[in-house]
Design brief:
The chain is about 65% helix and about 0% strand. It is built from 13 helices and no strands. The longest helix has about 35 residues, at about 110-145. Helix 5 runs antiparallel to helix 8 (about 195-205), helix 11 (about 235-260) runs parallel beside helix 12 and helix 12 (about 270-280) runs antiparallel to helix 13. The radius of gyration is 28 Å and the shape is elongated. It has helices at about 15-25, 35-45, 50-65, 110-145, 145-160, 165-175, 180-190, 195-205, 210-220, 225-235, 235-260, 270-280, 285-315. By secondary structure, it is mostly helical. The chain has a domain at about 120-270 and about 305-319: MetI-like fold. It is a multi-pass membrane protein.
């Protein structure tokens, strides 16, 4: 009988079970290391127009706050009463003292808008750092230890959470005669850490149940090492998102308190102070309020946009 045995062709190669499993395994990157959450988030942020636009705006605002002399050489406190609401915005004189016009004391609005970024952004950054450290520490301890420690810290947080933010800040600030930058920032941080604490507590409760935390504990790692080497890096992402968005809110809160006469005061230059000074001339010279208010809105919007972009990058469910 003829031999019916068929020799397999190249395209009909039969794989063994081990070869089949290997063929279904995704290719490993050339570096041999899988990308971490942060590197993966950075790759997504770089492709997000929302992040790019907000980051460029924030960099510009930070440069404006740190080195205002790059944008103007005019003294923002120097006024000439002959310019009392006489000069309207001169759009053709870019970066000149009269570009945005003058206020009721004859001071350059453009110069005051540039220098006002320093105080407003400084308060926002200081408050955000303070509430992140304080709230993050309280939330991390409450979430990790649980039990009576969690109960005590949670009730302590609820007490502060029940205090209206602006009402409490106004009560604290009225007790100070000299409301300097650190006083305003401290009073806001004293009342604003509760949200961060709650977010951190929930994130730590979820993270501490992970296998790598259990393995670290079984290998004899101390509490400090587990908290700061294993739990904190993996639980901080939601806190960063909340803190970034809240930073814009704190800048707006400082402007609100300054507008009410309870925040920063002269000789400090702040957008809130300029908005308050311009309210009486809103009908006759609306440009005096428009420019500091516009810069305030732009700054708050930039930080909110940055927070939204970071949230989208760090949350796998939104990808």
């Amino acid at each position: 009988m003829p031999d019916v045995t068929k020799t397999p062709a190249a395209s009909d190669t039969v794989l063994t079970s081990d070869e089949t499993v290997a063929a279904n395994v995704p290719a490993v990157p050339a570096t041999g290391k899988p990308r971490s959450l942060w590197s993966d988030a950075w790759q997504q942020l770089r492709r997000n127009p929302l992040f790019v636009i907000s980051a460029l705006l924030i960099v510009l605002l930070l440069v404006m706050a740190i080195v205002p002399t790059l944008f103007t050489s005019v003294d923002p406190r120097s006024g000439d009463l002959t310019n009392h609401f006489m000069s309207k915005p001169e759009w053709g004189h870019v970066f000149s003292p009269e570009w945005f016009g003058y206020d009721k004391q004859g001071r350059s609005i453009y110069a005051r808008v540039i220098y006002g970024a320093r105080a407003s952004i400084s308060v926002g950054v200081l408050v955000t750092l303070a509430v992140t450290i304080l709230g993050g520490l309280i939330g991390m301890l409450a979430g990790y230890y649980g039990g009576w420690i969690d109960s005590v810290l949670s009730r302590f947080t609820d007490i502060f959470f029940g205090i209206p933010f602006f009402l409490g800040a106004m009560v604290i600030l009225t007790s100070f005669t000299d409301r300097e930058l650190w006083v305003v920032a401290g009073s806001m941080a004293f009342l604003g850490w509760t949200q961060i604490a709650r977010v951190m507590r929930g994130s730590v409760i979820t993270t501490k149940q992970s296998d790598y935390v259990t393995a670290a504990r079984a290998l004899g790692a101390g509490t400090g090492r587990i908290l700061f080497r294993h739990i904190l890096p993996n639980a901080i992402a939601p806190v960063i998102v909340v803190a970034t968005i809240a930073l814009g809110g704190y800048i707006a809160a400082e402007a609100t308190l300054s507008y009410l006469g309870l925040g920063l005061a002269d000789p400090t230059i702040s957008w809130g102070i300029d908005i308050s000074d311009a309210k009486d001339a809103l009908r006759d010279a609306p440009h005096v309020m428009f420019f500091p208010a516009g810069m305030l809105c732009l700054t708050v919007l930039a930080f909110i946009m940055l927070g939204d972009a970071v949230r989208d990058a760090l949350d796998p469910k939104l990808r």
